[in-house]
Write a structure and sequence with these properties.
Blueprint (H helix, E strand, L loop, with lengths): L1 E5 L10 H10 L4 E4 L8 H11 L2 E12 L4 E8 L6 H27 L6 H7 L8 H10 L9 H7 L18 E2 H10 L3 E4 L2 H4 L5 H5 L5 E5 L5 H14 L2 E4 L21 H21 L2
Parallel strand pairs: 1-2, 2-3, 3-5, 6-7, 7-8
Antiparallel strand pairs: 3-4, 4-6
Length: 291
């Protein structure tokens, strides 16, 4: 069993890199893609810890991007990327800064609304990571007794873009995301394989042909948010554009919307080998640019 979409406490998972890898090993995962949001921090550590545990770590990232042409979110996974590569770091540094400002704004609004939490308290849940996410804010509210789980009506009431009759939640704060084509090109520049994450979740299918011409290498077919129709459409698109197929649990620990464990039974070794081959091809293409 393998998994090409897994998060750690570096971004918005409740578990450390070590604990995630150990859990993956315990459930029989052989190849594990560490794909934290908008950062390559922790990848070198993950590779070392994976080797110690007998789990093959595929260094990756999930870039929080946006399709401004169609006004939709679009997440891009990057595999076999070079940790700390300037092409990745330059865009992700901006994203992390924007998220930090937005998170502080959200917490201030929640405090102004009468909820007894503090920024210091919220930050403590994100310790060791790249910043505060909404899950960390909800963790603070949960511990203070305002709710009994992360994803609940309170989450919607606070953060929804359109909670009640089109009125945003009291803490809703928009973030300017990276353009999806810019994200694809950054992954490619870092010698990685660019894959469209969970296209069924954000309705990105119609854009794939355009993004292939910009360097998109693959599509995530197997994901907890995908039904059989989504998977079939991914398979058809992959065949049409000669894309690699990936899949994973999108594991977030206790911060996940659904209780899942690492591992994707539909993701076989043939998928891993195809990803490796595409990675070699991507690196060769990058080398040609410098010769």
């Amino acid at each position: 069993m393998n998994d090409l979409h897994c998060h750690t406490k570096i971004s918005d998972c409740s578990m450390t890199i070590r604990d995630v890898i150990q859990l993956a090993k315990n459930v029989g995962v052989k190849y594990l893609g560490i794909t934290d949001h908008d950062t390559t921090s922790g990848l070198k550590e993950a590779v070392i810890l994976g080797a110690e545990a007998g789990v093959n770590i595929i260094p990756g990232i999930e870039i929080s991007a946006f399709d401004y042409k169609r006004n939709k979110k679009a997440h891009i996974l990057g595999f076999y990327i070079e940790a700390g590569h300037p092409a990745i770091e330059n865009i992700c540094r901006t994203m992390v800064q924007r998220r930090s400002i937005a998170s502080q704004n959200m917490v201030n609004r929640i405090i102004d609304a009468g909820y007894k939490i503090t920024w210091k308290q919220v930050e403590s849940y994100a310790e060791g990571g790249t910043g505060v996410y909404k899950q960390h804010i909800m963790h603070a509210l949960l511990d203070m007794g305002y709710c009994t789980q992360i994803y609940c009506d309170l989450y919607k009431r606070l953060f929804s873009r359109s909670y009640d009759s089109g009125i945003p939640g009291i803490a809703y704060t928009p973030i300017e995301y990276i353009d999806v084509i810019q994200a694809i090109k950054a992954v490619k520049a870092a010698g990685g394989v660019a894959v469209l994450a969970h296209p069924g979740q954000y309705g990105n299918f119609d854009a794939v042909g355009e993004w292939v011409s910009e360097g998109l290498d693959g599509i995530e077919a197997y994901h907890p948010s995908h039904n059989a129709e989504n998977e079939d459409r991914c398979l058809e698109i992959a065949e049409k554009y000669n894309l690699v197929l990936t899949g994973g649990s999108d594991f977030h620990g206790a911060y996940g919307e659904k209780p899942v464990k690492p591992g994707c039974r539909k993701l076989g070794m043939q998928h891993i080998e195809e990803l490796k081959d595409r990675s070699i091809k991507s690196r060769r293409e990058m080398l040609k640019l410098y010769i």
